[in-house]
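B., you asked whether I could sanity-check this one before it goes into the benchmark set. Here's the sequence:
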Amino acid sequence: MKTFLNRMTFKTYSLAALIALTLGCGYGSKNNPPVAGTMPAISELSPNSATAGGAAFMLTVNGSNFASTAVVNWNGTAQTANTAYVSGNQLTVAVPASAIETAGTVQVTVTNPGTSGGVYGGGTLAETSQPMNFTIN
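And here's what the prediction gave me:
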């Protein structure tokens, strides 16, 4: 009977240690919600206008807090393949002639993509700048 009790005590302690280890490693915790990332800001577009029906051109976006993975958005459409990171204060984007065929105003923004949070969550949310208007005359 004493051997049986010793085995039960050992199993009980082993189970308690395993549970404590599992909870201590965060297995039972909920994912942490993402937090805000760095907000980019646009201060200038160069050029700030183009002629309707004109040729393709390179748009320079000056500002601050641009991540190396930042993307320029042209009227809400991410220009992922056309955006080039120059520095934390400057991006360039190739604007095709088809994007300036018609006169009007285009909103240009910059988005710093979010990061995933991994196993325990807690990444950052994507942040998009306030828009700056580009004029097509």
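One thing to flag: The mean pLDDT is 85. Otherwise nothing jumped out at me.
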